[in-house]
Design goal:
By secondary structure, the chain is an alpha+beta fold. The chain has a single domain (2-146), classed as Aminopeptidase (3-Layer(aba) Sandwich). The chain is built from 5 helices and 7 strands. Strand 3 (43-53) and strand 4 (56-64) form a beta hairpin. The structure holds coenzyme A (COA).
């Protein structure tokens, strides 16, 4: 498996993967630079995004294709996003989820109240309306030892 940055030629595939999992796609085009892809034999098997907003980051749009789930691909793409967050100087990662709360608990994220979320995260389109208001907000501190180049 190879993880690489997405480019605008990947947009249609990213949108398709997100739609398949009923995840929002409205701002994917403008955030294309935030996306990473996992590929196996040139087939895209997972996507995930990281928005960097100063010292905080938003993990978003994490999807693994159904026939590759439960084999560590989701964990790998999340680790890549965290490494890139560390490389960009991000200290705390946030995410919004309706469908995978316990999954992200397992990755070390914890629940945070919406009103305690940093303003930079509250100002994102995902937080401000694209994700349902029922989505839970989660956070975890970034391990600086995992730093990778960003973008
Ligand atoms: C959530 C998701 C990214 C996990 O990817 P994955 O590659 O299957 O996960 P991993 O292989 O790293 O981890 C698998 C473990 O997580 C658990 N898991 C997977 N999806 C889960 C979910 N939605 N909720 C709770 N646990 C979940 C599995 O049961 C498995 O546990 P096990 O090892 O004890 O069997 C994937 O299931 C997916 O694409 N779901 C649909 C989209 C989605 O909900 N994304 C999150 C949006 S914020």
């Amino acid at each position: 498996m190879r993880i690489r940055k997405a480019n605008k030629n990947d947009l249609a595939t990213i949108v398709q993967l997100l739609e398949m999992s009923n995840l929002p796609t409205e701002d994917c085009a403008e955030q294309i630079g935030a996306f990473m892809l996992a590929e196996e034999n040139k087939r895209i098997v997972a996507v995930g995004g990281l928005e960097v907003h100063g010292k905080v980051g938003l993990v978003r749009s994490v999807v693994v294709i159904p026939d590759r789930r439960r084999s560590g691909v989701g964990r790998a793409i999340c680790a890549e996003l965290e490494g890139r967050a560390a490389g960009a100087g991000v200290e705390r990662l946030f995410l919004l989820t309706e469908s995978a709360f316990s999954y992200f608990l397992g990755l070390g994220f914890e629940l945070v109240r919406r009103e305690d979320t940093p303003l930079e995260i509250q100002a994102t389109k995902q937080f401000g309306g694209i994700c349902p208001s029922t989505a839970k907000v989660m956070f975890r501190a970034v391990k600086s030892s995992s730093a990778k180049e960003w973008p």
